[in-house]
Amino acid sequence: MEIADSVLDLIGNTPLVRLRRITRGIDCPVVMKYETYNPGGSSKDRAALAMINAAERDGLLKPGGTIIEPTSGNTGVGLAIVAAQRDYKCIFVCTDKVGVEKVDLLRAYGAKVIVCPVAVAPEDPASYYSTAERLVAETPGSFRPNQYDNNWNPEAHYLSTGPEIWRQTDGKITHFVTGAGTGGTISGVGRYLKEQNPDIQIIAGDPDQSVYSGGSGRPYLVEGVGEDFWPTTYHQEVVDRVVPVSDLDSFLMARTVTEEEGILIGGSGGTAVYAALEVARGLTKDDLVVVLTPDSGRGYLSTVFNDEWMAGFGFLSEDGPVVRDILAQRHGDIPPLLYAKPDDSVRSVVALMREHDVSQLPVAKNEMPLAAAEVMGSIDELRIMEAAFSDGGVLDRSVEEVMSPRLPTIGIGQSVEMVVQLLDLASALLVLDGGRPRTVLARADVLSFLSERSNA
User: Fold this and answer.
1) 21-59: per-residue pLDDT in tens?
2) Which one of 33, 44, 102, 194 is the catalytic residue?
3) What is the DSSP letter of 363?
4) Which of 9, 37, 89, 394 could form an SS bridge with 4, CB 3.0 to 4.6 Å?
5) What topology does CATH give the domain 7-40+158-307?
6) Quick check: is 44 catalytic?
């Protein structure tokens, strides 16, 4: 009888599948390493099992212990599956950009989940890295696998994923493409494949603001891929090329693969496939590209596969007149986005508003380009005037002390009708384009647009 002894025995040996429809016009065959076939639904099952096995062998995790790990969801699921089989407790720390489905899934496995803000530096006490470290210090009998600094993360892929790909392609693979989050998959697979054939090219599909692509690690929305620091589990010497991919291209590719190939993949899978197609376009029928997609799209139904969410962040455009049309008719030389920083003086912000003839600004704490999550609030002339009337010294205080709540947001492709509805309750809107704040839209902009349209 073909019966696995436990669910852990089902980890690995995932299939390859040819991508036929989205590769029309491309000579080079592209095949997908379909990691959704792992019992936890992602490639992270492999590393999770390897890290826990090693911790048990080394005496770092003992019966009844607690596994604590910062995760975007998939590693947590893998760890939770192992914990369920071996009677460990789990505490996972996620950022607030992780979809609600992933958080609910971790809780379904019996884990405790703590959600932290994404728009903070790794060293910030509120970051999910720092929170996990604090929890480990406070929890007796705890173990943090630390997938970013645990050699068994890439080693798991060196021992399993790499050999599988080599065997499944009969050694004919010429290019391997995947995303790089912790770097475990690309480093482990890449090392194994290059040992078999040094000419095999190892390529990372990466968010265009990630450090691997030369960015700062912010801002981007795609989950589970890219980083804002260099993990020791990312072996840069193994990677031949990095292909930067925008949130827009990642999300649209995930939807395209799902609709045309019938394979439900997530945003990070979209990143990898987009990069794989970029690579394949320059190759021949004698080459073979293998792209590893780390997980299913089931964890992204409220985001990547939700039209309202996509439109709200400026990734999709509706029919009829939209915000983009209003901006196209703007007059004057207002920069794309003016904003105040929380530690700016109110006096300096008043001067900035006078210089550019605007009455309100968003408040954000980082440099451009900004993420929507980095916008902290807003400041406007009316609020300043009321505060200064009561206390003249307010002009020399910081913006953070007097700012108002954040402006409502609108996607650049959302309808003018929605703009009018939102401006009935707010004096201005923050326009999001490709997931990032682009400009502030005021009532005067809409009136000007409607006036010119009626005169046309």
Assistant:
1) 999 999 999 999 999 999 999 999 999 999 999 999 999
2) 44
3) E
4) 9
5) Rossmann fold (3.40.50)
6) yes
